[in-house]
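Sequence in, structure out.
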Amino acid sequence: MNNQKVRIVSLGGVGEVTKNMFVYEYWNEGNLVDILIADCGIGFSENGEEVILPDVSYLSDKKEKIRGIVLTHGHEDHTSALFDVLPRIGLGIPVYGTRLTTALASAKLEEFNLKGNFRTVKTTDEVRIGNFLVEFVHVTHSIPDAANLLIKTPIGAIYHGSDFKFDWTPNDGWPTEVGKIAIYGKKGILCLLSDCVRSEQKGYTPSEEAIEENLRVQLDKAKGRIIFTTQSSNISRIQQAIDIALYHHRKIVFLGRSILKNTEVSKKHHFLFYPRHTEIRKKDISKFPDNKLFLIIAGSQAQEDSALSRFANGDGETQVKVKETDTIIFSADPIPGYEKQVHILINKLTLKGATVVYSDINDELHVSGHGSQNDLMLMLGLTRPKYIIPIGGEPRHVKQYQLIANKMGYKNSQIFSPKEREAVEFDAFKNAKIVKIPTR
């Protein structure tokens, strides 16, 4: 027993907001026995033109030890690197996730003519993956069917709290399973890995319902079309937009490959609801008056090849041109590091005469899916871990999280901020330290 240890290796998601990928290792008698991977996401270059993939060369001589991959939710920065990673480490490796998460990840793989070994779980399930036992906790985020993970190891329980907030009035009526988290905390948590991207923001992150009234106001004022953009995997926000559009008797139009794919998958699996006759295709837009149209378009982060960027550039592929009577609503904040490219896109749309509404002039049209300081403190209070690893944030977010934890009585020696190619290692006596891992 004394020769057991557990390591957590970050291949992304520590010191950065995107490209989340964490490797859990169980060692015994000096030998690596089992590997469990949590999430497998992409990142983007600063100008949004290039997709950045996690470097999985660390796993190249350990493939036979990988017992499974567990996905926390369906956002691209947690799932979309599977198309590159699975062929490198083994297409047959089981990939676990909730119903919407596995559906979205599977659809993404199909774009590359790949088929994964997906295993859909419920939040009541307990899954044995090698020497790891994984339980799932439903949490509220900006996408339905999101989960945190309780990973039971031979040394102790680790709570993998990727993206979350405590929304008591979520759009789907399913709040975070707080009681479950509290029970885990009472039983004992060795380490909490916690989302920290909004650690600079005071209070609680507002509920999704907070934006509904402001969306209604925008529709009441609009003389022409509404062009609505949010992250294409933000299914809860898309549902809100659809509900309000239908209340105002507008037809729905989806523009952009990612929006079309994600809404189709979400509707098929009963996470998105609207009558089919209320949706029209873009080729039929000209058949309806502008004040009866509500366009939901991909590209809120100003990705160069997105439908919104092509729309702003007057690209003929979209078959839709910007009009001066358009009201364009950004219901998404720029991902940290993407602010400049989003502002350039807003400027292009503004110069074409459209009315553009975005968070800098109306911060009530978007709420984050990430917890603010009080959410983060609540998670700490519920889990009561011995050690903490802030994840999913840049160095400034990690520092603010550390200050929050200090206020709650945690010493800096209990808070770890590993860099890439560093691991946090726990021994059989529940001591923790950072260790270097070999590079190839």
